Amino acid sequence: MKDLDALASQYTKNLEEHVQKYWTKLYQTPKDKNPALDPDGSNHDVDTDPVYCACDMTGKGEPVTRTLNISADKSIFIPVNDVGVSDREHPGEDANGLKKQAREDEDNATKVKLTIDHDDFDLQDFKNKKFRIRNPIGPFEVVIPTDPIDGLEPPGPAMMVADGYYVIIKPLPPGDHTIRIEAGVSKQHKKSGPWYEDVTYKIHVT
Fold it and tell me: Could you tell me if 11 and 168 are in contact, meaning their C-beta atoms sit under 8 angstroms apart?
């Protein structure tokens, strides 16, 4: 089995910056074009570096498969078990309150598994815990669009924070690759019930 550290890209040293960009993208993109609700990969931008994979915002745990065609010079951002929390979901909460919600959400993680081709990585293992954000990121401002992800209404400026487990891997060699994200929390911040995701990326690198 490969060492996840060996796969990590140079972007990992700026991980928090990329996490903020990722969540800003998700919260500012309308529901019908949002990569976190993408059933097949068609809502993903493959021209950025890194290319940003996305969670399954439904949290239902139903398998989702997305197909991407990317170039061999692109690193890949992978949110393995992630959470964004804003004052839309928690009206009246200040920054400290939002950070508490985010931290507790990820502290309740039951599964944080990443598979890259044939190699499995449990990010809750001691050696991989470095990929957990040490302290929730933020607050930072996002602008909620019209027709946003459910629960983020109404449109306009919002304050948010982020926590979770994230990896940015080096460019993959040309050919076909598979990245699978399996994640869950026993109690998510938006409701009392659990949240699960099972997202597979079929990636063709040229």
Answer: yes
